[in-house]
Design goal:
By secondary structure, this protein is of the alpha/beta class. The protein is built from eleven helices and twelve strands. The protein has helices spanning 13-26, 40-46, 52-59, 78-86, 140-157, 175-187, 200-209, 221-234, 272-284, 288-304, 318-329, and strands spanning 2-9, 31-35, 63-68, 90-96, 109-115, 125-127, 132-134, 162-167, 194-199, 216-219, 242-246, 251-255.
Length: 332
Amino acid sequence: MYNIAIISGDGIGREVMEASEYLLNKLDLNFNFNYGEAGFDCFNKNGTTLPEETIKIAKSSDATLFGASTSTPGQPSPIINLRKELDVYANLRPIKSYKGIKSIKDNIDFIIVRENTEGLYSQIEYGDSEKVIAERVITRKASEKISEMAFKLASRRKKQNKVTCVHKSNVLKKTDGVFKESFYNVAEKYPQINTEDFYVDATAMYLITNPENFDVIVSTNLFGDILSDESAGLVGGLGLAPSGNIGDKYGLFEPVHGSAPDIAGKRISNPCSMILSTAMMLDYLGEKEIASKINCAVENVVAKGKVLTPDLGGKAKTMDMAEAIVSEVIQC
C-alpha cells in the first residue's frame, strides 16, 4: 500500500490530477490517497496558499503529486514553499522528442537537473518604492548536492555519459563561481563521466542548434527553470514536460505547466505532463516496470495521433486522452 498525497491546486491542476488518479486506480497496485489544499482558491478559503495541514499530509506520505496553482498576488508560491518544506533540493525535468509530434529534432533525449531550494527563489526581497533588491543565495553545500545528483543520473542513463554545468560566472563571479567550482569538485569523483560547462546564454542557443548533444544539464534554480521551459518548446510544449522534485526523504511530482486559467474548466488540458510525472513518482517508489509501461503508453498514444488534446493538434478532451493512455498501458 502506497500513501500518496494529492494536491490538485486550481485551474487545470484539478483536471490533470483527475487523469492521474484515473490512471493510478487502473493499475494493479494499492494506493491510499490523502488530499491537501494549496493555491489561489485555497487562499480565498483559508487565508493561506499552503496550509500546515497540507504540509503534514505531504510529509506523512510516501510521495506527493501536485497539479498546478494560480499565482496569488502578495502571497508566496505554494509549490516553491512546499519544495522548501520537503527539502526536495533536486528538480528533475526530462526532455525528449516524441514520434508524431513536431520537434526541432527527432533525437532529443536529455534531462535538466535544477537546484531547487535557493538562488533567486530564496524569495528574499526588500527595498522601497525607488529601489528593490532581491538576494541570490548560492551555497557550496547545495551546489555540491545538486551536482552529485546530476552525476549519479548520468551514471544510470549511459547515453552520452556527460554532464553539462550551466552558469554565468563571467558576470556573477562569486555566486556562480561557487556553483561552477562545486561542480568540478564533485566531477573528480566521477572520472568516467565527461564534463563541460557553458554560460547560460550560450546554452540557450545550443539547445536550439544542437539539442541532441546534451545528456544531463545541471544548473541553478532560475537558469534551470528558464532552460527547461525553452527545452519543452523544442519537443512539443509544456504538455509533454514532467518533473520530479527529489530530496533525501521526500519526493514531489508535478507537471511543468502552470494552472492555465484561460482554458480551465474547458476540460481540454493535456494530461501527458501529469501522467508522465506520475510515472516518475512510480519509478521513485521502485515500481520501475509499471513506470516504463506508462511512458511507453504515452509514446504510443502520441505517435498514433488519434486521441490528442488541442495543444497537440487534436480535438480530444483531457479524459479522452487519459483513457487512451490507460488502454495502451496493457499493450506495453
